[in-house]
Structure formats: C-alpha cells, structure tokens
Specification:
Layout lengths: L1 E7 L2 H14 L5 E4 L6 E9 L5 H9 L6 E11 L7 E8 L1 H15 L15 E7 L16 E7 L1 E7 L7 E8 L4
Antiparallel strand pairs: 1-3, 1-8, 2-6, 4-5, 4-7, 5-6, 8-9
C-alpha cells in the first residue's frame, strides 16, 4: 500500500477551491487535476507499506497529541518554472505554528517504524494540479492573484490515506485520528 498522512480540507475552503478550479481549468492545460474530494495538506509521505505493518502505524499515529487548529486559504502559487509549473497549489494561513508542530509530531511518531523524513523544509500547501502542458502558452501568472483566500476550516483530525493509482478520487482514507480540543 502506498500511504501518506494528511489534514483533509473541508467545508467552505474545499468548496471555494473546487469552484475556482472549475472556472480556471479550461484555461490551464495541466495534465493532472486533483479531485475536490482529494484536497489535503500532506503532513508526511510514507511510501509503500506491507499490510501486515498497518497496525503498528495506526498505533503510532494514535499517539500524536496536538491541538486542533484553525486554517484558511491564502492565495496560492506554483512550484517549478514560472512559464510551465510542475505544481499549482493553494497557500495556507492561520495556526501555522500548530501545523508545524503537527508535522513534527507525525514525523516523530513514524520515525521509529523506519519512515524517513524528507530532507527539504516542510512547506504546507494544497496541491490543485500537476504538470503544465508542454508547448502550451506560458502559464498566466496573473491568475494567482485570483486564487481563493479567506475561507477557513477547523482541522480537527489527521488521516492516513492510501493512494489508488489511476482512480478518481485517487485517495482513500483508511484511518482517522482526532486532534485534541484546546
């Protein structure tokens, strides 16, 4: 199983992202768009795991103790070349210190199981699309100013997600772990 740990994006924030994507998608030749039900903030990519080890992973995630947090959309950006970005993403604002603490807590909980944290700095975001079309007109950077901003949600749980390649929606929640009330 190919797994990762994430915060799901719900409510008005997910709705606003979905509406913006629906409006802009015909103008933006990205090869892969994320299904609205798959919007999330990745906390840690785990990779392949044998099903026999799922119990110990679930137990480790149950031990993550971080308070729930308020998050909101905050515009967006791209990764990769400005004319043909690899990724289009939505930015996050709100309780970012708590979000960083949650990321560290998940990494700390999974490291004894052999999951290695990424070396690059953690950058919380919501991926919307990948792989801008080769040979297409340059990505219209002015659209970034129109990305949703302000819609929020309470992040009250982390989820263990399984990737189902070539399906849409692509991610399946196989575990949910509540965050603490402040």
């Amino acid at each position: 199983m190919r797994l990762f740990v994430a915060l799901p994006v719900r409510g008005a924030a997910a709705d606003e992202l979905s509406e913006w994507v629906h409006t802009q998608r015909p103008r933006l030749p990205f090869r892969k768009w994320v299904h609205a039900q798959d919007y999330h903030i990745t906390l840690q990519f785990l990779g392949e795991l044998e099903e026999a080890r799922l119990g110990e992973l679930r137990h480790a995630l149950e031990g993550v103790r971080v308070n729930e947090m308020s998050l909101r959309l905050n515009g967006g950006g791209t990764f990769g070349p400005s004319v043909a970005p690899r990724v289009l993403w939505s930015d996050i604002a709100g309780d970012l210190a708590e979000l960083q603490e949650l990321h560290r807590g998940v990494v700390h909980a999974t490291q004894p199981l052999g999951f290695i944290p990424e070396e690059r700095r953690y950058t919380a975001h919501i991926t919307l699309a990948r792989s801008y079309g080769e040979g297409a007109a340059p990505f219209p950077r002015e659209l970034l100013a129109e990305m949703p901003s302000g819609a929020g949600w309470t992040a009250d749980r982390i989820v263990l997600m399984r990737t189902r390649m070539h399906e849409s929606p692509m991610y399946e929640i196989i575990g949910e772990y509540g965050l603490q009330k402040p």
